[in-house]
Amino acid sequence: MRAKLIYSHGVVEKPILASVVLRTGVPINILEARVNAQKGELIVSIPATGEKLREVLNLFREAGVQVQEFAETLRIDWGKCMACGACISPCPTKALRFREDWSLEFDEERCVACKICVTACPVKAITMP
Amino acid sequence: MTEKIEELRTIDEINEKIKRGDAVVLTAEEMIKLVESSGLEVAAKEVDIVTTGTFGAMCSSGVFLNFGHSDPPIKMARCWLNDVPVYKGLAAVDGYLGATAMSETRGFEYGGGHVIEDLVSGKEVVLRAESYGTDCYPRRHIETTITLEDLNQAILVNPRNCYQRYDAATNSSDRVLYTYMGTLLPNYGNITFSGAGQLNPLCKDPNYETIGLGTRIFLGGGIGYIIGEGTQHSPGAGFGTLMVKGDLKQMNSRYLRGATFHRYGTTLYVGIGIPIPIINMRVAKTAATRDEEITVNIRDYAVPTRPDLRPVVKKTTYAELRSGKVSLNDRDVPSSSLSSYKMAREIAETLKKWILEGTFFLTKPIEPLPRQREVKPLRVRGREIRVGDVMSRNVVTARPSEDIKTVASKLVEKGIDHLPVVDDEGRLIGIVTSWDLAKAIAHDKRRLEEIMTRRVITAFENESIDVVVHRMAQYNISGVPVVDRLNHVIGILTTDDISRKVVGGGRAV
Ligand code: SF4
Ligand code: SF4
Asked: What pLDDT is stored for residue A37 in this prediction?
């Protein structure tokens, strides 16, 4: 799951993310960071589901971090996709691959939202909301 | 060819069978399986036609258009469709729209390929044209919308389609490259390739015994014809190409897709399928060629030279490329196609269906494709400007141990921005800019070695100016030290030198 973590002034200097990782054992991955002395915004990928995911999100909220969940990572317009494969080898996490019948398969769990596939697609079939 | 080849059937006989509804048609994949299971003899006896397919980016594509005359009429001197320029060096209302022409308002995002797709899918397209007015054609300006149906003719004529095979691409540099071979990650991060391999028409008849001028084909979802060899046809090397034409009005936007290669340009994905009549044993054999047998060079696109001079990093096959990883320098490198194997399969299936339904008959080529052709590079006559012509040879350098403040005042005094740092033998080990120095002084740093950039982008004296200018833009820098083969600094080239000494057309003044 991907989420945006918004740190307000006052909590921005605290090592909240590290302590959540330590307490839950979930290896949270930072995809994008914009931090200054006043406030900070992190886009993270949280490789957890169900109960564990709720625990992670609650720990952030309790620490005073505002959490915005992203419903989806990227969107593939299957009507546009021509199964060319131009997005597959540039994907750093192998989240995109061919199925047995040579159609495209997307593994949401592996996606780190780097967006390289968005520009690699020649027909703009991939968008990131 | 002196060996005696066993004839199996003629094209006329095959057409008779199609008419009767008992022609045996297999796709190229099915033919491969049949030969594997029952042997070549059996397959050759049984199968009349093998269908092929390919669906990939084919930049040398476009459409001849006739708009019809307006009243009052215009001799269109310049013309645009959805702001994409149409070639107007033809009669008053004829034009040619090429797939790679780019929109004057939307650039990379939309081009000739997209206009073709929009027309085929029935969309309205804005036609705009200008003229100077003549006695017979007084109108000077026109702006209206058109659809494919409104046009008198829209004939797809593609000067080069259907490459027999195509070199694969990788990238040895330390940055992402955006090329016509797609996105290439740094440090051999991936490999891209194009071509349908064992489904490709020309790979199934590499001696061009059944393919030539007049061959009827599947083109963009409609019927088309081969009208000769394609440009850059290079049969000797196994890189044959085709020139094809067909009526755009019969085509289907599923098989003609406008596309953009990021930071490269626009193009058109074209679907082509060709029936291979199994006229003799040799064609039967080649029609069963597998991906494992079709070799492909992987070339390094980081080297900015002529395509055929880009270093080959590995010889591989379509089978290895299609497996999703290629072993390169003892490492598994992800590989993926740019052309669609799924669509190529669908095209071979569709063509098979047409033949079985008795709606598609084979033609005998009037003339085979040439089996010999030399592809020559373009020789540039006259002397072109090189780095050595423009660089400053009077280059100020410094040693790593020098004091920052002294160096800074030296730069100010000489009015320079880039300072190569060299060792005792004059070999380049780093660089600092005046901006680095200003920052260093603010942070109270002392010695150059604390602040210099160690990975220096350089140029050689005999390199082309355009190549180095592009390199400077890629790395967003305004100067490069010029070094010899032993890395001694022999000059420096800055954007200032270039704008001062080089004018358009690459001539030094
Ligand atoms: S966004 Fe990045 S990680 Fe996700 S699918 Fe695209 S290339 Fe792969
Ligand atoms: S690059 Fe685009 S069209 Fe090609 S397989 Fe990926 S999503 Fe589909």
From this structure: 67
